[in-house]
Amino acid sequence: MQMSRYIRCLFAALCLAGAVAISVVSSPLVSDMDACHDDSTESVNAWVWDGMPPPAYAVNMPQIVALTFDDGPHWLYTAQILDYLKQENVKATFFVLGAKAKYNQSLIRRMSDEGHQIGNHGYNHRSFIRLSNKSLKWQLAKTEEIIETITGKSPTMTRPPYGEYSNRVKDVVTTPLILWSVDPRDWATRNAEKISAYVIKKVKAGDIILLHDIRWSTVKAVKEIVPALKAKGYTFVTVEDLLTSVYGGLNQQL
Ligand code: NI
Q1: Distance, CA 183 to ligand 1 centroid (Å)?
Q2: Which pTM was predicted?
Q3: Angle (nearest 5°) at CA 81 between 156 and 218
């Protein structure tokens, strides 16, 4: 009787010790798995290009730069920029909003017909990191659908509004995320001379210049930036052509 009680106690003690041991061992494992999931790059679809060429590529960098215009199309300013780019035979990239593309279809068609690249900037400029996966997928798919219906081509690049992204965003977005390397803050200064002076001073081969085709000051600045950079020997290309020329393609993980 005593013996069996002793064995039961011993058994209970061993169980308790085992449970404690399991919980001690398992808690770091569980948290490691969580951390691993957060930091995992295995399931990440999109890669991010911040416009800063790695030093290895800077050696024989061609004298090319990419002008990018966000937040349009604007019925007047985008049309004026397209007129000017056509006149100067300059190719650019427009990261458009679905909500604006929907009501400015002829401008989207012009961009495509005149050799410019069209990228996805979301539907209505909501920060991607603040959207649920479902909402983010909707924003991207809706904008893509609008562009594809007008041009027959899906955008191959995405620029997150405010440049904000996370690992979760990278998991949801299925195209490269394109940031920029020269930002004259044209939306804030609204001063053509300041915008153009900043870009002309800062630009170097391989740069991606961030502008917004929604202000008159930016239209005016573009007319100063293009001749000044042409005079310095730069050629303007789309982001896709820039990445293909410098890095060998869009799917290159830097
Ligand atoms: Ni934007």
Answers
A1: 12
A2: 0.80
A3: 100
Please give the distance, rounded to the nearest whole angstrom, from the Cα atom of residue 153 to the centre of ligand 1: 22
**Residue positions annotated with a catalytic role:** 70, 212
SS3 labels along 54-116? CHHHHCCCCCEEEEEEECCCCCCHHHHHHHHHHHHCCCCEEEECHHHHCCCHHHHHHHHHCCC
Q: Mention every residue, 6+ apart, whose C-beta is less than 8 A from residue 106.
A: none
Q: How far is the CA of 163 from the centre of ligand 1 (A)?
A: 8
pLDDT digits (tens, 9 = 90+) for 4-53: 555 454 444 444 444 433 333 333 333 333 333 333 333 344 567 766 65
d(CA 57, ligand 1 centre) in Å: 28
Identity at 63, one-letter amino acid code: Q
